[in-house]
Design the sequence.
């Protein structure tokens, strides 16, 4: 049997299993690729928030990356929580030397507002990480932090995309998940525009949506799809996962990564 496409996530661990590395690997399994991981940080996290976070040393991040890429090889890379300026710069450097598309989710804060990236790392995201991204996937808070553009309605999404593209990613998906009404995202490379629209699911169990979307994009890119095809398929996958999100713990539960695999009985 031939090996499936290989996808690498470079991200933090969520002990609750809903976001971070755990979400990434689950999404990759559900989409039929071989998921691999470089851990950047460990969080003590659950449905109520982040109770603690510990960064790994930069040598540990570099060593994991080299182990995976030099032997197994990757068809796509995805980044999530990178925690510090030093890690952002090291990861940007590693991606620049890798011949595979990179999906950069510039994770800033958790759904509960806990910081996952130091404020002092924002400049490195702008000048080192975004320039090596094939696709960047900021949410509206990350757009505001990185560019100063505040999105209040769908009409502002194009302006937000233009501001992010200034930093050099090939494509950007501005996620409109935090607006009201339909869940509308804008994918653009500055010339083509694709509006991705899905019904808003009235489900508070949305922990891990951003990680899941970015990992799904990376998985479809690894299978050889174009960026617009990969993002469209990833949007369908995350929409289904949100619709099937379930309660766990006393707070915000996870999306269901396996929704597309469940056989109705
Ligand atoms: N309630 C919802 N119903 C349907 N889609 C949603 C909902 N909330 C977010 N989305 C979609 O989930 C994806 C992740 O967006 P978002 O939640 O904004 O990311 P993040 O986790 O980075 O904050 C986007 O495609 C967004 O449109
Ligand atoms: C380790 C880690 N990485 C990322 C997120 C963001 O989660 P979301 O996908 O809900 O924005 C998180 N809560 N924890």
Sequence:
């Amino acid at each position: 049997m031939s090996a499936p496409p290989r996808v690498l996530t470079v991200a933090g661990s969520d002990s609750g299993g809903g976001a971070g590395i755990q979400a990434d690997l689950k999404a990759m399994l559900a989409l039929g690729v071989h998921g691999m991981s470089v851990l950047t940080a460990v969080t003590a996290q659950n449905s109520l928030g982040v109770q603690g976070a510990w960064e790994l040393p930069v040598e540990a991040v570099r060593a994991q990356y080299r182990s995976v890429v030099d032997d197994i090889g990757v068809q796509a890379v995805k980044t999530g929580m990178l925690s510090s300026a030093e890690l952002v710069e090291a990861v940007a450097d590693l991606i620049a030397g890798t011949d595979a598309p990179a999906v950069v989710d510039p994770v800033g804060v958790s759904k509960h507002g806990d910081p996952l990236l130091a404020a002092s790392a924002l400049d490195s995201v702008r000048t080192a990480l975004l320039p090596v991204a094939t696709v960047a996937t900021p949410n509206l808070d990350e757009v505001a932090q990185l560019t100063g553009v505040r999105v209040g309605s769908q009409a502002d999404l194009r302006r937000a995309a233009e501001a992010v593209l200034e930093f050099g990613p090939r494509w950007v998906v501005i996620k409109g998940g935090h607006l009201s009404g339909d869940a509308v995202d804008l994918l653009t490379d500055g010339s083509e525009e694709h509006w991705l629209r899905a019904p808003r699911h009235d489900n508070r169990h949305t922990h891990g949506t951003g990680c899941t979307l970015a990992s799904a994009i990376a998985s479809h890119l690894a299978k050889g799809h174009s960026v617009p095809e990969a993002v469209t398929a990833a949007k369908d996958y995350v929409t289904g996962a949100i619709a099937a999100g379930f309660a766990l713990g006393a707070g915000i539960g996870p999306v269901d990564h396996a929704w597309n695999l469940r056989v109705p009985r």
